[in-house]
Prior knowledge:
- It contains 13 helices and seven strands.
- The chain is an alpha/beta fold.
- The longest helix is centred in the C-terminal third of the chain and has 23 residues, at about 250-275.
Amino acid sequence: xxxxxxxxxxxxxxxxxxxxxxxxxxxxxxxxxxxxxxxxxxxxxxxxxxxxxxxxxxxxxxxxxxxxxxxxxxxxxxxxxxxxxxxxxxxxxxxxxxxxxxxxxxxxxxxxxxxxxxxxxxxxxxxxxxxxxxxxxxxxxxxxxxxxxxxxxxxxxxxxxxxxxxxxxxxxxxxxxxxxxxxxxxxxxxxxxxxxxxxxxxxxxxxxxxxxxxxxxxxxxxxxxxxxxxxxxxxxxxxxxxxxxxxxxxxxxxxxxxxxxxxxxxxxxxxxxxxxxx
Length: 278
């Protein structure tokens, strides 16, 4: 239903300026947040499943052992800043993991995320690609975790790069996580040379789910709030953004995945409390 509502907009935008549309095939014009938007996940879900995919049993065991207490630390960090929370979770996922093992785990994770992705959003992105537009995933998540997923979708990946030393990840973000207003730096850097003048950038689409995405959504001609939080919902209605994705149908995999992940975390808590080996 949501994609049907968007069809007229997508097609009309293509015919509006054919010469410009032909030129824009060379750079991304569709920017999509990942966690909470394209996928109904948060970074700790991605981290947990990445750890489960690691080929080393020893690493899996020790990282899962500290996963629950690390979540508590990440929660405290998130109360201070989203960037700090991302740094904690990236350290948990990648510290000491070889580049080869990380690529192995992230490639398997990509297939999981593809099954979890919201069907209406996937269909919409495929429609954009059919019309010749390039897709970009723009996320604060750690780049080694989500780059294979972006490649699987045929999308460019703009996310938080991580430090590598002697063939292993140190667990540190290289620079500052790509969150909030920093996403606008990516858009401005990519689009300002093609569209001189102040935003909004014409023929550009954006998809986000929270007020953390509001800054970059405000730069595009066609912003979309996807299952938005209360603040973004109010903002999107006040500015008359598209409501096509305010409510979406989740993938059937999502319910089963959340139930399985929840039971596993409960078992980990039980194991840690009573000293059972996992």
